[in-house]
UniProtKB/TrEMBL annotation:
PROSITE patterns: TPR (PS50005). It comes from the Bacteria. Coiled coil: none annotated. Pfam families: TPR_11, TPR_19. TPR repeats lie at residues 228-261. This is Tetratricopeptide repeat protein. Gene3D superfamilies: Tetratricopeptide repeat domain. Keywords: Repeat, TPR repeat. InterPro entries: TPR-like_helical_dom_sf, TPR_rpt, Ycf3/AcsC/BcsC/TPR_MFPF.
Amino acid sequence: MRLLKEIRNLLGNYHVKSGIYHYYREEYKQAVDFLRKALDTDDNITDSDRRTAGYYLTLTYLESAQRCEDRGEMEDALAEYTQAVQVSPTYPDIRYRFGRALERIKRPAEAVEQYGHAIANHGKYLDAWVAKAFCLLGMGRTKESADAFRDACEIKIETVREPFETGIEQLRKDSIGPARDAFHQAFLFVPDLFEDHYRKALKLLKEEDFEQALTRIEAAIELNPFYPDLYNFRGVTLFELGQLGEAVESFRKGLSINPKYIIPKMNLAFALLHVGDVKEGEALLEEILEADPQEPAALAKLEELRASQIPDKPKTRRAVNRGSHR
């Protein structure tokens, strides 16, 4: 997920802000140094800033690992994945990517272990099931491989059946657009192509090439219209391009898919304030603070709003001494 720049600037902890700044510049070593300081040595860090630091530290290790893989520096990549696992041990995508890296250097038993962790934290993680099944097959563990392929097959069938049934239900309601999205998901989704668009969009966002990023995000949405992160990225991109009304609608869409996500809710609140909808923006900030009373950006913005709404105190009219009258 990604926050608007304005929100990142309102984060309370210096080390967290500095770490995020370096993360977006792809200066991963500096990002790790600052985020580690926030987590390990800053006694005054709030729970909210601690969660933010952990989230960005995980992303930093993941992207650093991917950079190492792209360069063929596999041992360094494994070290980065190991660090990412220590920060976020239940994040299934780390385990999956860790497993793929282990397979590349012919360490299949360890790869199977990582796929197992991914599945333990996300039982329907199809890619992890398929990778585990092929890995077991290559090791000659045929019975375990057959079991894994069966589980993968059930999940694969479900990935078609569920959106298909949703599409049929939408047709019964004459909801053509939602039906089309569901059938697209059922029959036209291409995971590898989606992943390519998704990763390139994130890179373009970091480079602040917003026009090209938007093109990639739209292509990814076309392939997978139910992935909430995409609408948040789209909203951030549109906001940066000055298309504020469309940004608001994109944040709304992402939030409608997953109402528990704080980041798109925060982005939506700030975008609403920019388009002049102070009432709804303020209400969303209050919702965020109900869930996390220490959230620094929401606190700062709400205080700013309320200060601006306090009417100026009327000046006391001073008596004018007009001199003595004779």
